[in-house]
Amino acid sequence: MKADQLRDRLLTLRFELRRSFGLPGLLGGLMIGAAALICAEISSVNADTKEMRDPAQVTQAAQAAKTHHPADTRSVEVDAVALDTLPELFPRFSQSADDIASIFEQAHGSNLTLGSAEYQVNTDAGARFTRYQVMLPVKDQYSAIRHFLASVLNSVPNAALREIHVERPAVDGNILDARVRFELIYRNTQP
Description:
Elements: H1 3-53, H2 55-68, H3 76-85, H4 96-109, E1 118-123, E2 129-140, H5 142-155, E3 159-167, E4 176-187
Protein name: Pilus assembly protein PilO
Transmembrane segments: 21-43
Organism: Trinickia fusca
């Protein structure tokens, strides 16, 4: 059958059904058909859920997981050694000036003008890390601010976005006032 003939037959069928049942009847038939499809899908989802709840399959899956990844191979000593080497992955505080310069470089690359920044260094007694917080006021479009945040987080691996507060000063404007707080994490020099 050609496409034109098929289209003609479907149009004829639609007009005949509309004449016999009217528009409300056709809409009701479509709704009943949609409900039937949904019921069929729900029953298949219920069957899948019952299979997942079957305790025999759960124990088989647990046994398969134990054979692939035995949990007893990792000891407490291995975890302690890994925890002791974690601070060595972070840079020393002497790199903080380079990280701040990188943040300002990313702002320049995003065509942002930064206001006066606030800096705060926090070191807890006995802690292995020093936290250097940098609060930056930023004023620009959303896309530029978003690009700046992504580029800082991608270029400074020890940086974390701690807080962002965004305000729109004018309802019809697209320039936003934002305050961004980054936290740079460094290892302490003393163990």
